[in-house]
Amino acid sequence: MITVFGEGRGFRVVWLLEEMGLAYRLRPVDLLAGVEKDAEFLAINPAGFIPAIQDDDVTMVESIAIMEYLMARYGPTPLAPDPHDPAFPAYQQFLHLGEAGLAASIYFVVVSRNLAPEAERQNWGAGKALAVFKNRLGLVTRQLARSPYLAGDRFTAADISVTYALQLAQRNGGVILGQAERAYIARMSGREAYQRAMETCDATRALADRTRGQ
Ligand SMILES: N[C@@H](CCC(=O)N[C@@H](CS)C(=O)NCC(=O)O)C(=O)O
Asked: pTM of the entire structure?
């Protein structure tokens, strides 16, 4: 049985597991309560960030690497196009842009806005991170004008990667997304596997409920 530790970007992993129909359990990790008190989780990831997974004797961190591991280990799956498929380059690019370009940037905007001391909320680093996010978002907008999914005409793990980042920006980063991105999120979150993942992920669902309509 695969164990997923923590939500946040762990939502990507849970959504992927639901898309693949694999059995798993979610073990919550409460970062705000203080991860230093969670000895069981620190034994899995001594660096204390989420998500992590345990799969028999495999322990991993990094949500995109975890998704790639699961698709390679339990695939083949249409969620990961074959390297010879014409969809592969766009798939690979957006799978990684979702974290390296989008989520990793907006995360520092989110923590500055929500967790930093009042006087440090408007800091230069957060402004630069927001500018980087918006710059990379332009590539997503351009791609959505060309195709319904980021890798072309079918859903892949790249859509899981980017949808998570767009929702983080919308829910916690103060970003107002355009019509194309909002319609894309609505399509992605209408998927049955997404809905099942939301049922499992209590913290993500609570956040979505709190920020709906903002
Ligand atoms: N690139 C990593 C980012 C992991 C990450 O920063 N996770 C956040 C929550 S989603 C976290 O644990 N932050 C607390 C910390 O880094 O100490 C991934 O995709 O898994």
From this structure: 0.98
The length of the chain in residues reads: 214
Task: Establish whether the linkage from the previous residue to 51 is cis, with ω within 30° of 0.
Answer: yes
If you take atom 11 of ligand 1, which residue's CA is the nearest one? Answer: 49
The pLDDT tens digits for 56-70 are: 999 999 999 999 999
Is the CB of 7 inside a 6 Å radius of any atom of ligand 1? Answer: no
- Distance from Cα 153 to the centre of ligand 1, integer Å: 30
Alpha-helical (H) ranges within the chain are 10-20, 31-34, 39-44, 63-74, 88-96, 104-114, 124-146, 157-172, 179-189, 192-200, 202-211
Tokens of 106: 């907006």
| Distance between Cα 3 and ligand 1 center (Å) | 17
